[in-house]
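Dear colleague,

Thank you for sharing your sequence with our group. We've completed the structure prediction you requested, and as agreed, I am returning the results in plain text so they can be pasted directly into your records. Please verify that the sequence below matches your submission; if there's any discrepancy, let me know and we will rerun it promptly.
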Amino acid sequence: MNISIFKYLKKKSFFLKKANGYLAAILLLGLMAGFFLRHPLLSYGIHKAKDKLQSLTGDTVTVEQYGYAGLNRIVIKNIKVYSPQTHDSLFRASFIAVRVKIFPLFDGKVRFSEIQVKGADLHLRKTKEDKQGKSLLPGRKNFSSLIRKQTEYDVASMCRKIIGNMLGRMPSSVRLSNCRLRLSAEDRETVFFLSALTLHHEQLQGRAEIFDQGPAPTTMIEITGRLEPHRKMTIGLIAHGKKEIILPLSEGTTSVSFQFDSAMFSLCYAGRKKDSLRYQFLLKGSHAGFFHPALSSEALRVQTCSIFASVCFAPDFIQLDSSSLIDVNGIALHLYARKQGTRVKKITLEELLKTGTAEIIILPSVWDASTFFTNLPEGLFSYVRTVKASGRLRYCMRFFLDASRIDSLQFVSSLKAEKFSVLSWGALGAIRLDSSFRYETVNPQNDSLISFWVGPENPDFVPLEKISPYLIYSVMTSEDGSFMYHKGFNEESFRKALADNIKHWRFVRGGSTITMQLVKNLYLSRRKVIARKIQESLIVWLLENSRLYSKERMLEVYLNIIEWGPGIYGIGQAARFYFNKKPHELTLPESIFLAAIIPKPLYYYSFFQENGVMKPFYKDYAALIKSFMLRRNQITPHDTVHFPEAVTLAYPAAAALNKTTDSLFVPDSLFIFDKNILLFE
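Please find the predicted structure tokens below.
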């Protein structure tokens, strides 16, 4: 029995050795065939890539020389990509060498163990007419065809793949020298020159120079870091010189810019659980600044800032766990966010919000009021940063959106004070509403200053008790129905406005209260930027929570300073311009009309047809305002008897109307009537 088993094993061993021999022979023949055919295969691959790029984009690719140096090192010399029409060069490089890993080729994958590039130049140019950055690639014929067409994209899977490739496909050796990236728009160009960058034994070292509109470098950057394949990537930057880096790629004449003394970015693989992958991101900076025209009219500047994000990527959701943190000058916010449903037809923010659910939570955060205001970023809070206070502030927020029920959007934001008091109003104290003050603003064209007194010194000033109640209630009904009861914010109105704006994916409705409009007119500019809205909210909170002024006084100032037409400010001038009356003489129809034009006072003529007759939509609008006022007992049924469907303008508004309807007539789109999106709450 034992002898038969021994013979069997011996016989099996013989066949295994024989099979291994055949396999080794086949492998050897394959390697030999690959070795002898590598030059024809390389030539075929390069010509195919050139032809495909030219057919898709219209660009021409030329390669002076290519070939192998050693077994698996490919060398390409003097490659150039340019537009045949304009001869604008998109990319060129004098020398590129890559070493290909052999074994991944058997699995159909191309991996590099070494990359070396010399004298590379990449030029991205944005034209004045280009709004989406498509002109960054010259000679594009069908550039969209470069992107593989899919009926559906899984954003979570794409993020996992991109991040996985960043960590997992790092070459063990990288050498870049004399490489240049040029960003240009109209008459401005910024050049990033990488004099040297090396990656060796997981250590990253390099030096870059930034040229802004001149032959001499304005900023020098030292690059250090460590790259551990499949585990962690850390990159540090130290800036010298001017330190401001301008990216001339925004619309108009303005450019995006950022600056820092030092910055650090880290990406770390944090584990796997079933089908989900977790990564941790860390971004830190000191003496950092950032400017974007949509954010603020000035550059945002902070002493220190850090962003830590622990992100989980699963098959159908992306989640930011509650350990994630944003810290700006010591003001810390702990965040939680989750996007359920990441399969979209197009990779846009609109598509993501209109798919599945989205939730953002700012966990309760407590700040010391004595340092909170002074620690706010410079450039965003020019007024609020000057406030000095004591006590504590507690803030939390929750946003939840179900794309199948956008109208049920949930939004709760709470800033509460604990033993809080204002010690000094700083720049906000320059305007005191409890007495007469001089109001200054600029005209809509931003070419002249308008200044007048708000008080008895001004003959056009009208005390609240001398303004028609019809006008007061009409304005509050159309602009802020709960003005007398809320603390500066109408959360329900803001929630509905946010839902409508997401539903239409454009601005169709604002959530500003009368207090917010008053603050905007008194302290802030006309520019619709994110910083203005945030600072506006903080000033409103300070005014309302300090109870510095009564609601009646704030409403009185509001009605006496708002723009009510071309060069018309305040209800005194408005009543005279449109109806040749004093404010207390205004009728209900006239008051509703004046309230209706507050959002677009310069285009009051858009309510009228070319023959001077009011447009049909106004009848429905006026009827709706009237019904709300009746429901609230602000008017009586007797007030609506023989209620006219239109108003008749007096001189000088009527005379101006005859001119504007001929030359400046605009369509109904300036006033969109929809009873579901008006602020009557």
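Summary note from our side: The two ends are 96 Å apart (CA to CA).

Kind regards,
the structure core
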